[in-house]
Design goal:
The protein is an alpha+beta fold. It has seven helices and eight strands.
Length: about 260
């Protein structure tokens, strides 16, 4: 065959493309399970960091297998809800078949569309509830996990991540522990608009549902603020009712205690 002909070039190129495609498909098939395992362990680390199961540094120094077991030992139940706040599914928490809703982009679209969402709720021992958030930063998606105290109102902790925010600026949402720690003890005001505020000088107002934005990272802060409020709104019917009954129960306990002391 004439190696300078167009026919030869087409055949040669076709063969090379086919071989490369086959190699890439084989590599992807072999690496797929390991990549999935890494992704699952990463999600669990982020959730358990928000929930305060162990310090973040310790979680990231723990093997994937031990992370799975730690989650199984620490979780009480996991389920999903719809946008009406009603439970619509259960998630396995057994170490060998942990189920997660970790594809957050489709859920974000469903939330904005107003239907079709399957939103996870992870309840850890001690009553700490963890939910995800997802949105757009400056250069790509930002996401994270927010943990609530048993009153379903007070934030117990948070963890945030990103795909490509600017190092030293927007990337601080993940890289700087002090930023995550600012959320602990703050509240989400279910039913308010917005339920939470992440903006410049937010804390100066004295509001308990506010955290100062990161200086020099305006767009990342705005994106994270929107993500928080979009997802909090999606969970509002579920957690707002739970917070109401938790507060009512606490009020009744307080009244009973006061009455007993008077007697």
């Amino acid at each position: 065959m004439n190696t300078n002909s167009n026919v030869y070039t087409v055949i040669y190129t076709t063969i090379v493309v086919a071989v490369v495609s086959a190699v890439l498909a084989f590599v992807a098939m072999r690496l797929g399970p390991a990549q999935s395992a890494n992704a699952k362990a990463e999600t669990l680390r982020q959730m358990m960091s928000a929930a305060g199961i162990k310090p973040t540094e310790e979680l990231y120094a723990t093997s994937n297998a031990d992370i799975l077991q730690l989650y199984a030992d620490s979780i009480e139940e996991a389920y999903t809800i719809d946008l009406d706040g009603k439970e619509n599914g259960r998630l396995s928490t057994a170490a060998d078949k942990i189920e997660l809703i970790d594809k957050l982009k489709p859920q974000n679209k469903a939330i904005k569309a107003g239907s079709g969402a399957t939103l996870p709720v992870y309840i850890f021992k001690g009553g700490i509830a963890v939910i995800p958030i997802y949105g757009a930063g400056l250069w790509g998606p930002v996401w994270g996990y927010v943990a609530f105290e048993p009153d379903c109102h007070t934030i117990a902790g948070a963890f945030f991540d990103h795909e490509g925010e600017t190092p030293g600026l927007g990337a601080k949402i993940k890289d700087e522990p002090w930023f995550r720690e600012k959320f602990s003890g703050k509240t989400v005001e279910w039913g308010d608009e917005p339920a939470f505020r992440l903006e410049k000088n937010a804390e100066a107002t004295g509001a308990t549902n506010a955290v100062d934005a990161i200086t020099g990272a305006t767009m990342t802060s705005k994106g994270l603020n929107e993500a928080l409020n979009v997802w909090f709104k999606a969970y509002e019917k579920h957690f707002g009712i739970a917070a109401f009954f938790a507060a009512l129960s606490q009020h009744e306990i307080s009244e009973e205690t006061t009455q007993n002391e008077e007697e």
